[in-house]
Amino acid sequence: MPVSGALLNAFDTLTQERQEPCFVYDLDSLRKHLDELMAQDVVKLWYAVKANPLSAVIDTLAAAGFDFDVASSGELNQVLSQHVGAQRILNTGPAKSRQQLGEFLDAGVRTFVLESINQVRWLNELAYNQGIEVDVLLRVQLRWPEGERNPLGGNTLTPFGLAPEQWQGLYLADYPALNCIGLHIFQWGNMLDAAQLLHLWQSMLAPLQALCERLGFAMQVLDLGGGLGVPYDSESSPLKWQDVLGALRDIKRQSGVKELWMELGRYAVAQCGYYLDPVIEQKTNYGERQLIVAGGINHLLRPAVAGQNFPAQLLRRSTAEQVNYRIHGPLCTALDSLGQHSLPEDIDEHDWLVFMQAGAYGFTESMPFFLCHSLAGEYVFEHGTLRVVREPQPASFYLR
Ligand SMILES: Cc1ncc(COP(=O)(O)O)c(C=O)c1O
Description:
Blueprint: H1 5-17, E1 22-26, H2 27-38, E2 43-48, H3 55-64, E3 67-70, H4 73-81, E4 89-91, H5 98-107, E5 111-114, H6 117-130, E6 134-139, H7 164-167, E7 178-184, H8 194-215, E8 221-223, H9 241-255, E9 259-264, H10 266-269, E10 273-285, E11 288-293, H11 302-306, E12 312-314, E13 322-328, E14 337-344, E15 352-355, E16 377-382, E17 385-390
Parallel strand pairs: 1-16, 2-3, 2-9, 3-4, 4-5, 5-6, 6-7, 7-8, 8-9, 11-13
Antiparallel strand pairs: 1-10, 10-11, 10-15, 12-15, 13-14, 16-17
Helix pairs in contact: 2-3, 5-6, 8-9
The protein binds pyridoxal-5'-phosphate.
GO molecular function: diaminopimelate decarboxylase activity
Keywords: Lyase, Pyridoxal phosphate
Cofactor: pyridoxal 5'-phosphate
């Protein structure tokens, strides 16, 4: 993944001035990417704020025309603070308490993905008491019978949504404040093959349509969640947006819905982000090369939870032979590994590594407090210049 010369210069300046790990988000390239995603009339795009809730990132998505998938009161307040209107917000997530639903209604949110019978009951009561009607989608979790070919590859039970058997007992007329406009389904992740996505989506249509018939409403909207992938290794090819659009066009036609929706996280913002990490030292242990770096899963937890590394490069140019390293962070747990990487053999304690695809599920999907290391800084690169959002902070920033 090539990095522009201007951005490399910005990295150089930053790493000469500071010694702590930090994230840099390239908003110029993000804007270009988002414009490409928005230049179509096939799918309505929401941004899954959980991928990266930084204010400057939200601003850029809002300006590009994305609306916002918000999954907590914290995300709601962050999006509203960027002057995004509540009518541009969709509330998803399995843990919506009655209180949280009330907060969203009070803020003016009128579109909800509901994931349980209680959520249906609570939202109806709250909206009814306020004399308002809200649009809702029911989130469905599908399973395939044993022995049948399963396009998902497995039947892991999650708390996301409900089985059709659970939903079909619902009598929608009992909930007059809810306008049921469609269904939501999202049970796949980091998909890099549009044909496979199409196959997956197609195999879900029949059970979803059967559910709508049982419930007695026409599916106007089908929300296919997120799950569009980005390559985390050099062997994988990026998922082409035009191929995704082709698959979505087919699904729209086959399902007969008026609107398709997706909430993109990773595919929207991963590629704009970089994590800069100083090397502490290189050592050899039982014949294996190890690189010890200043920031590990305290700043980038994903490799430990998803078993997938962020791609890494050495910041400076080197013509030395590429060798295999295991990269380890500063925490006192063997879990603190950023994976195995092929990098030049002359890396030493003056060097920095750059981890790519760190714009999504980076800074806020981490465990920053363990061992009291510094919090990673966050910077944005916009109109060719670097701007600090928050300098790296010592543990005294949060310890009381
Ligand atoms: C409901 C919902 N929609 C969308 C997303 C975004 O997924 P992705 O980052 O794979 O696009 C998530 C991620 O967890 C989610 O929970």
